């Protein structure tokens, strides 16, 4: 079994993802976007970075890379797929999940630790947590503001497809705890199947104790 970490031109969190998954005992392999997914692929991760320099808009070009057709087919067959940061942007642009990520409310690149409240613990990506639990993970993005129509947002909320919301250390969700202006403080969602998820914060950067905490481990255990 192998989790394929898809590399695009401009990816820069791909090796971080491999190391984090390996630390958890999960086999991972880097796969260039012009190549095919390995036959033994049991999971796919779209990593962070700046694919194609965010030209046009973040994730738009990478979403049309040759390998993404295979990623969509894998997702439809039930293979777990996780998009993180730029990977989340690619996931939305490619139709794996609804909505879009756009320029931060501050119009600045933001790199900091944030708190997330687990909204639905009944998914592969959140099964290691309790509903309402607060975890701390880093963000690093300039286009992390999640946007979606009011109607679609209400559907996500009603269907328990919101994974995480930005909050304070006590789990309070408010405008002041929203680092980028995301609608409803949304930090991560699942697609039509909960085996497909995208999130803007970086769980792979919160898995190694020697570099700042392990709160993100539970997300990556969705591949286990």
TrEMBL record:
Subunit (UniProt): Part of the FGAM synthase complex composed of 1 PurL, 1 PurQ and 2 PurS subunits.
Record GO biological process: 'de novo' IMP biosynthetic process
Pfam families linked to this entry: GATase_5
Species, as recorded: Haladaptatus paucihalophilus DX253
Record-annotated membrane-spanning stretches: none
ATP-binding among keywords: yes
InterPro entries attached to this UniProt entry: Class_I_gatase-like (IPR029062), PRibForGlyAmidine_synth_PurQ (IPR010075)
Active-site residues annotated for this sequence: 85, 202, 204
Encoding gene, per UniProt annotation: purQ
Keywords: ATP-binding, Cytoplasm, Glutamine amidotransferase, Hydrolase, Ligase, Nucleotide-binding, Purine biosynthesis
Enzyme Commission identifier(s): 6.3.5.3, 3.5.1.2
Described purpose of this protein according to its UniProt entry: Part of the phosphoribosylformylglycinamidine synthase complex involved in the purines biosynthetic pathway. Catalyzes the ATP-dependent conversion of formylglycinamide ribonucleotide (FGAR) and glutamine to yield formylglycinamidine ribonucleotide (FGAM) and glutamate. The FGAM synthase complex is composed of three subunits. PurQ produces an ammonia molecule by converting glutamine to glutamate. PurL transfers the ammonia molecule to FGAR to form FGAM in an ATP-dependent manner.
Matching HAMAP family: PurQ
Cellular location(s): Cytoplasm
Protein name listed in UniProt: Phosphoribosylformylglycinamidine synthase subunit PurQ
Pathway linked to the protein: Purine metabolism; IMP biosynthesis via de novo pathway; 5-amino-1-(5-phospho-D-ribosyl)imidazole from N(2)-formyl-N(1)-(5-phospho-D-ribosyl)glycinamide: step 1/2
Organism ancestry: Archaea, Methanobacteriati, Methanobacteriota, Stenosarchaea group, Halobacteria
Primary site of residence: cytoplasm
SMART domains, sorted: GATase_5
PROSITE patterns for the chain: GATASE_TYPE_1 (PS51273)
Listed GO MF terms: ATP binding; glutaminase activity; phosphoribosylformylglycinamidine synthase activity
A single GO cellular-component term on record: cytoplasm
Signal peptide from the UniProt entry: none
Reaction catalyzed: L-glutamine + H2O = L-glutamate + NH4(+); N(2)-formyl-N(1)-(5-phospho-beta-D-ribosyl)glycinamide + L-glutamine + ATP + H2O = 2-formamido-N(1)-(5-O-phospho-beta-D-ribosyl)acetamidine + L-glutamate + ADP + phosphate + H(+)
């Amino acid at each position: 079994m192998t989790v394929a970490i898809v590399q695009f031109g401009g990816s820069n969190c791909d090796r971080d993802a491999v190391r984090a998954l390996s630390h958890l005992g999960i086999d991972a392999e880097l796969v260039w976007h012009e190549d095919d997914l390995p036959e033994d692929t049991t999971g796919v991760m779209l990593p962070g970075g700046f694919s194609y320099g965010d030209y046009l808009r973040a994730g738009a070009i990478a979403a049309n890379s040759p390998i993404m057709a295979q990623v969509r087919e894998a997702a439809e067959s039930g293979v777990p797929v996780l998009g993180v940061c730029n990977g989340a942007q690619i996931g939305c642009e490619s139709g794996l999940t609804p909505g879009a990520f756009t320029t931060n409310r501050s119009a600045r690149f933001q790199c900091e630790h944030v708190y997330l409240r687990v909204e639905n613990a009944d998914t592969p990506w959140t099964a290691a947590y309790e509903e309402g639990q607060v975890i701390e993970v880093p963000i690093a993005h300039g286009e992390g503001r999640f946007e979606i129509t009011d109607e679609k947002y209400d559907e996500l909320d009603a269907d328990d497809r919101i994974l995480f919301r930005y909050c304070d250390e006590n789990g309070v969700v408010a405008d002041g705890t929203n680092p980028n202006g995301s609608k409803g403080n949304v930090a991560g969602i699942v697609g039509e199947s909960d085996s497909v998820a995208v999130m803007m914060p970086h769980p792979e950067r919160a898995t190694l104790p020697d570099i700042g905490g392990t709160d993100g481990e539970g997300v990556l255990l969705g591949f286990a």
